[in-house]
Design a protein that fits this description.
Layout (H helix, E strand, L loop, with lengths): L2 H10 L3 H6 L20 H4 L9 H14 L14 H10 L3 H22 L8 H7 L15 H18 L2 H7 L18
Length: 192
Amino acid sequence: MKRRRFVQAIAAAPAAPAALAQRAPAPSTPTEEAANLEFTHLDAAADPAPHFFTPAQIAALRRLSDILMPAIGEAPGALAAEAPEFLDFLISASPADRQQLYRAGLDALNAQAKKRFNKPFADVDAAQADVLLAPLREPWTYEPPTDPLARFLRAAKQDVRTATTNSKVFSAASSGGGARRFGGGLYWYPLD
């Protein structure tokens, strides 16, 4: 089952009893046949469009995602897996503290990039990004970092990695030839 269909099914579950109660009665004669509707697969209907983050925030998230999970060899990166777009959706449906963590973290990345390099984080080069992402090189501890930017970077690193490796694109690339080359087989398969 795809992430999008799973989330839509969860979101539609509370409305199901009301929809069934409003169901039209079955046709009483063959001449009153119900109209046959054609259905389109959800993934073919539209591309995901960011709607939670501001344009500056989503640009910073895309750059951060590309740095954290670049395409390596045949393994697709976060951008090919549309991880930033998925995180935009996921964070929009997350608790308020998670939303605040991401918004404040992306704004802090942009503010530091402008302060140090006079450009937004989306436009920094690799060396400049390395300076800004220094908190990721700190030793890992069980306690979350006290610095809000470091706390955001730790959360974003895990979320980008998870969104990328659980994407359909990553699963398709990893299952080529039937081998589990880079952690393949993690994408959900349909239950029906």
